[in-house]
């Protein structure tokens, strides 16, 4: 159990980000809160006589997924509301947590947010609420991402096993092949640059989650955290492994082998379409994102392919992941058992999962999909028919061992973003940035009442 000073500090930190959403969530009859009220559902309730579980989710096909669940279940129905994606939903959920009412029974949560909400006693441990029945449907890494200590606080849905997306036209023009190690990546990037080609990859300050994945790819363990340890947290952000990663990218920036503009901006997408980047080191969901932004159409159609991520040690490869969501049960629910059934059952039926991956909405983590010949042999249109699932993303998903998330996650991302910007503008080396990051996050953790260990 977390000590009261630490829990109070975490609660106050989370409240700060939620003040702008103070009108959200009004108990059981506004946003479909934890009382199970069905007066404000976006979807149609198929069986009005069944108890209702409220759900907040922002998947593009949420209504279809909820309809599939409601058609298949007579004993419970889902009332779905989209209160906004990502931060908007979290702000509303945080307001409901602080008010003690207004939360849904089930909440879509990205894996890196779960520990923050768990620390406020806002989520239900699902270990004894159906987890044993479905645990074999997901890898150990998928479960670790939704765990805090020994507790299970989410039902995994999708993830982002990482690979290298690259332009075959650029690679052919400059006579290079996908690098298999980070050393090869630097040499290949230099070869392309020397021949007058584009920058090889992107190192963006606004992508701290990607950089964190790189840390894990070098065997780093940035954090250790178990709420059973009475407010202790392990922070190791200037380890040799992390310094090696940041010094490596610092070198690529200095040699102008990578671009440094922020990702997910119109300017960045325009540069990708124009062929200003030879690769995009990203997750399995990236093709859907890129296509939605207009990549892969017209002149750059049919030029994209996927390859495994480069490794530091090819004899001991490490799979990494960027992103992923789960369904968590709110502690405000009046029926944890039925809420858990919904969390484990929504987006778990074959029809919903098939639509999700075929429409490139999600990359499912359910092993029944990952192991299916249809999924593995799928010729991905964005990759000009390449069987990228079989060749790149399924092996990465199966090998991924998970990350340790903490209640400090959002502050850590902000602090890391600051240090990535310092590397990019030349005011700090990679090693200096790691030392500054360690000092910053340790100081912050101690201010919040944590006892920091290394």
From TrEMBL:
Among its keywords, does the record have Methyltransferase?
no
- Tell me where on the tree of life, at the top rank, the source sits: Bacteria
- Fetch the InterPro entries from UniProt: Bact_solute-bd_prot1, SBP
Q: Name one Pfam family in it.
A: SBP_bac_8
Alphabetical UniProt keywords: Cell membrane, Lipoprotein, Membrane, Palmitate, Signal
Q: Which residues form the signal peptide?
A: 1-20
Q: Which PANTHER family match?
A: ARABINOSE-BINDING PROTEIN-RELATED, POLYGALACTURONAN_RHAMNOGALACTURONAN-BINDING PROTEIN YTCQ
Q: What is this protein called?
A: Extracellular solute-binding protein
Q: Which organism is it from?
A: Microbacterium gallinarum
